[in-house]
Amino acid sequence: MEFDTIAAISTPMGEGAIAIVRLSGDQAFEIADRLFRGVGGKRLKDVASHTIHYGHIIDPKTGEVAEEVMVSAMKGPKTFTKEDVIEINCHGGLVSVNRVLQLLLNNGARLAEPGEFTKRAFLNGRIDLSQAEAVMDLIRAKTDRAMNVALGQMEGRLSKLIQKLRQEILEILAHVEVNIDYPEYDDVEEMTHHMLLEKSAYVRKEIEKLLRTSQQGKILREGLSTVIVGRPNVGKSSLLNSLVHENKAIVTDIPGTTRDVIEEYVNVRGVPLRLLDTAGIRETEDIVERIGVQKSRQVLKEADLILLVLNYSDELTAEDENIFKAVEGMDVIVIVNKMDLEQKIDMDRVHELSKTHKLVTTSLLEDKGVDDLEDAIASLFFEGSIEAGDITYVSNTRHIALLNQALNAIDEAMQGVEMGTPIDIVQIDLTRTWELLGEIIGDSVHESLIDQLFSQFCLGK
Amino acid sequence: MTYEAGSYDVIVVGAGHAGVEAGLASARLGAKTLMITINLDMVAFMPCNPSVGGPAKGIVVREIDALGGEMGKNIDKTHIQMRMLNTGKGPAVRALRAQADKFTYQHEMKKTLENEPNLTLIQGMVEQLIVEEGECKGVITQTGAVYSSKTVVITTGTFLRGEIILGELKYSSGPNNQQPSIKLSEHLQELGFDLVRFKTGTPPRVNSHSIDYSKTEIQPGDDVPRAFSYETTKYITDQLPCWLTYTNEETHTLIDNNLHRSPMYSGMIKGTGPRYCPSIEDKVVRFNDKPRHQIFLEPEGRNTQEVYVQGLSTSLPEDVQQKILRTIPGLENVQMMRAGYAIEYDAIVPTQLWPTLETKKVKNLYTAGQINGTSGYEEAAGQGLMAGMNAGLKSLDKEEVILSRSDAYIGVLIDDLVTKGTNEPYRLLTSRAEYRLLLRHDNADLRLTELGHKVGLIREERYKKFLVKKQAIEEEKKRLQSIIIKPTSEVQELIKSQGGSELKDGIRASDLLKRPEMTYEHIQKLVPAEGTLDPDVTEQVEIQIKYEGYIEKSLQQVDRLKKMENKKIPENIDYDAINGLASEAKQKLKEVRPLSIAQASRISGVNPADISILLVYLEQGRIARISAE
Ligand SMILES: Cc1cc2nc3c(=O)[nH]c(=O)nc-3n(C[C@H](O)[C@H](O)[C@H](O)COP(=O)(O)OP(=O)(O)OC[C@H]3O[C@@H](n4cnc5c(N)ncnc54)[C@H](O)[C@@H]3O)c2cc1C
Ligand SMILES: Nc1nc2c(ncn2[C@@H]2O[C@H](COP(=O)(O)OP(=O)(O)OP(=O)(O)O)[C@@H](O)[C@H]2O)c(=O)[nH]1
Ligand SMILES: [Mg+2]
């Protein structure tokens, strides 16, 4: 629908460390305020226009802090779209930007269509006449392309699953409608709160399942999140550089060189990796380094794959052992680096610590063993040890957003039931769930309910 | 030979349920109005169910009343029983239904028409419209009378080239063997209107004396006095019951064995029938696993023995109908007085209408009721009211009225018709309304009285009463929102007795009322209002507070709708000149010619990208105009 509040990531994906999520529309401030916790509890709606504010984005459902952000608050009409605009600057790269976007979408914003900010700018008289034709072409071309992509996805299992789920809901809806429109019709039992709760719970579970697969879909779209960990100076940054075949990270012989998380994309034998080089993990007094170490541990938690680097020419330390502990239960490849130097490491102990993990030895200085490592990554992935899920599943941000909204709607329906709200009112939320799922597969609305009504029940005079 | 017979502001053709509302509305708002109908003894005749209201439809009757229409008042005077339906459900789907005394219903309505100062009611068969340069200027009857007028409303129901089908028999006829309207249908075609062929049917009627009611279940009316109209003060107390019985295996076998004689299956019937009114032969074929179907026996009036057999609509031959009836418990010895039949008729494709119900082809010509592809008395009456109102307003050079989907079921009905068309006789269902929590039975007056008053259909006295009620609701709501209920032992006792959990702290009365177990009455006990409030007022207070969250949600959706409705599309827009519109969208837009972006977005085949392009185009025009100035 036009004129609602839209949101999108407005820096090119994957470029630069800072990404911006932009919100535009009547409710931009309201929605942002649902998530933003500024210093001293200040609300964006109260701040002066065109000012920037530091704070956190929290997930209102859990109350957890999701991101540390800078937010620009701009009231219309002096904005690009002439509407109220909020820009949220996130530091944490793709993952965090996506999370912020998801939260906005779950809290009332709609994902912008391709070119929609430009379109609004035009509709609100920001762009002049000469650009109008171009905008129209843009809309057509982009939506057609988006449509083709969407259609491609639709042929997969997602479409079938959604259709099945919608049919379930439709039957509930038709049942409720029949109770309403034909109250004297005695063949259908009255839908009870209990029945409704049971059926809604089922629908909810299925939506949740789909959303879980969306995480896996994301891996393939954004790359397998691969974190390089190890003590300082073991050669982590060197490893990143050899995998991307470029000197992206600074390499020195000073322990503690890398102080922040560095992110790079690379395709290893067909497996997309989002490589994260981290600060070496150790106890340290240096404040900046300590923050880096903390971040390393945090990134670790969200990783799909761990590259754990050890130094061949150094003895195993308690810190190494701790790192092994920290990655327990995850997919890990152990890399013993600096093979060109004299052995000091206890390899038996390394094997013991590695358990079933793959183990590769390298000399990054001499460019040896990198092939073995790439083989190990590829085989891990293609042999399916890494849970990347079924790639036909939900991967489109729009779909994920709709699924999340559908989940919210069904939650509200279930809350309604528990509150004892009359069923025909609870049905408003149930219908909404059904419509949201329909938007995923581009199905239109009301007629099919009426069709269902008359094919499911024998009604009439 | 023709002759000049008179000149009017508005002419209404037909005096069925659409026609009477149209004529009354136009006359009441000050237009000099003529009504012409084929047979004066059949004014507001009910060719099918002797009943008015029900889910969605009952709400329409209340909306008609809030807009100054007659249906509610008339049924309040002439029913034999009335019931509130869906009382166990939420407030949004409650609805009244009345069984009518169909004969007094007609007489009362005729009396009202005859006594309406600005209205002339005559008998006649209209055969032609006077159309000059695309504008309708009057009508010509079979007898050559020429009536001229500024606007014309056609409400000819199922009469257009009507054909009755009864078993192997098929003949040209209007409903109930009335004279059909053949020339007018041909004339509409000549004027360039697209017509479709629809079908509907009615069950047999039987003699009450021959029914053994002991084998059926009684269905009494409510013992609380009820009324559709906000003006009704006199209630009918002696009600007649209806009766319930069932078909059985024997009935179904009999139907199966005679299917070859059904015109439905022999191919004799070509018109499209409504799915929601299947004939008994349809039900038996489509739902052949059902062991029985409900049959309601409904008296057609107080001074007749004829009983309507609801559930047994059929076009099987007369002898088979007779036998079917006698398989049903209670009807073993029944005497059939009239056989059921199906009727086929022409309707105009409703996308040829503007949302005012004026036709796009011929200016100043309006159509309403079953001719527009709907079915049902209430659907007809709702359209009749709007068409009559608009024809009247236009004849007086006043601005016409369009109800939005968020204003009324009547708005939903008309918007569906003119935007989407219909490929079967259209019936209102609650599920067609996306804002049904707002379009309630209980708040029709709050939604529409203002408008009714503005166009001149609601009298001052009633309007004043309405304002008083409105204020009382607001005040009582405010009171409950400001008063705090403390957790005294009396309060805790009451809450516990209702199965709720005790208060921990003081709570606003309105918040306590939101609890599912609490009612207005409970709150009233704890914090009594000064003086006694009208039950209509307290009902509103309760509903508005209890469902506030949901109502709020609906209102937000309506807000969005309104914004789209405010994006108007000029009537003279040239869709061919718009780059980028998909060709299907172009074709649909040219056919429907939507008045707003909201309406455009509801047309099937017009997708969001087309809407975006349309918006850009409209904006482009605006900017071009500004720069040219
Ligand atoms: C057999 C049958 C079964 C039905 N079953 C159902 C049902 O189950 N449920 C339901 O909801 N609805 C049913 N209906 C429909 C319901 O009766 C109509 O929807 C409703 O009466 C339509 O109202 P109306 O005002 O449009 O037309 P009508 O009530 O049909 O009135 C038409 C009026 O126009 C007049 N007229 C026609 N042609 C001319 C002319 N050329 N000149 C002057 N006057 C003219 C007629 O005399 C009549 O007064 C049934 C109708 C029939 C006939
Ligand atoms: N001899 C030898 N030196 C290596 C090898 N790999 C890396 N080095 C050197 O080890 C030093 C540290 O390498 P980095 O890649 O910066 O190590 P790091 O783990 O990123 O270190 P921090 O960022 O400080 O935690 C550099 O001087 C590298 O040249 C290797 O295989 N053999
Ligand atoms: Mg480093």
UniProtKB/TrEMBL annotation, chain A:
Belongs to the TRAFAC class TrmE-Era-EngA-EngB-Septin-like GTPase superfamily. TrmE GTPase family. K(+) binds at N233, T252, I254, T257. Its cofactor is K(+). Homodimer. Heterotetramer of two MnmE and two MnmG subunits. Signal peptide: none annotated. InterPro entries: G_TrmE, GTP-bd, GTP-bd_TrmE_N, GTPase_MnmE, MnmE_dom2, MnmE_helical, P-loop_NTPase, Small_GTP-bd. NCBIfam families: mnmE_trmE_thdF, PRK05291.1-3, small_GTP. It is found in: Cytoplasm. This is tRNA modification GTPase MnmE. Pfam families: MMR_HSR1 (PF01926), MnmE_helical (PF12631), TrmE_N (PF10396). (6S)-5-formyl-5,6,7,8-tetrahydrofolate binds at R22, E87, R126, K461. Binds 1 potassium ion per subunit. GO terms for biological process: tRNA methylation; tRNA wobble uridine modification. GTP binds at residues 233-238, 252-258, 277-280.
TrEMBL record, chain B:
It is found in: Cytoplasm. GO terms for molecular function: flavin adenine dinucleotide binding. SMART domains: GIDA_assoc_3. Its cofactor is FAD. NAD(+) binds at residues 273-287. SUPFAM superfamilies: FAD/NAD(P)-binding domain (SSF51905). GO terms for cellular component: cytosol. Residues 545-616 form the tRNA uridine 5-carboxymethylaminomethyl modification enzyme C-terminal subdomain domain. InterPro entries: FAD/NAD-bd_sf, GIDA_C_N, MnmG, MnmG-rel, MnmG-rel_CS, MnmG_C, MnmG_C_subdom, MnmG_C_subdom_sf. GO terms for biological process: tRNA methylation; tRNA wobble uridine modification. The keyword Kinase does not apply. Keywords: Cytoplasm, FAD, Flavoprotein, NAD, tRNA processing. FAD binds at G14, A15, G16, H17, A18, G19, V126, S181, Q370. This is tRNA uridine 5-carboxymethylaminomethyl modification enzyme MnmG.
